[in-house]
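Running this now, will post back.
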Amino acid sequence: MKFIILGSGGFQTIPRPTCQCRVCKEARKKGVPYSRNGPSIFIDDINAIIDTPKDIINSINREDIKKVERVFFTHWHPDHTEGFRLAEEITDDWTAHEPYELKNEGEPIKYIAPKEVMKDLKNIRSPLDSFLAYRERMRFLKLMEIESDKEYKIRNLTITAEKIRQYTNANVCAYIIKEGNKKVVYFPCHTKAWKNDSRLKDADLLIMNNPWFSPLSKGQEITENHPLRHQLFSMEELIEQIKKLNIKKTIIIHIEEMWGKSYDDYCKLEEKYKDYNIKFAFDGMRIEV
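Update: finished.
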């Protein structure tokens, strides 16, 4: 299985607009790997993307990806869906009359999510209609609802959407991707909401959102009652999970500017935690399992 980290950033890209902190100024000057686009990965084996942040088109062009057949979604939050128009950008081609010619070898791109997540996605609307309904009518995309916790075979891979309990205002899922006896878990958000630990056990690779770090970039401490403690693991809690579940390798994504750490800082943390095989993602990172 081959993967590309399209975007390693979190709900705010790095650099943040107008921000003059050390991390953002360095990212503007140096670019990748110091800069970070919104959270998304590419599954090379099946020409699939998971999630479409607002800068997904830039990420695809940067990595010279030549074909997209499927887009999976984890949840509706804007940092994962603002790039909905990806299918339209790829497939639309102006002609004199409808139906317009499709560039994508005549096929709409499959937009895939568990039915609970898809219901949320369909509620994202323009003043006229659901964003997705309009684009499906135009044949830019084809919506496909799948069942949570059910395996789906796509070429050489088996993919399962693992349902997580409803988190605040969103239904959230993770994706378990298998080939033979190899298992990858993509879990970019809300990891503390996961209940079914057994599905993570013995994973060859866990790609998950970052733990919290204290103090934050502006000097604020993560106090005992800080809400981030209910959303994210600490580094120590993450290590306990890795040991308990026998995770062979962990790659951390959804990396936020608010932690106040640059690419170089994360390289030092990798060295500190090398006994647990923890890596911090960067845009364009290639992974083979």
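The first helix runs from residue 22 to 30. More later if anyone needs it.
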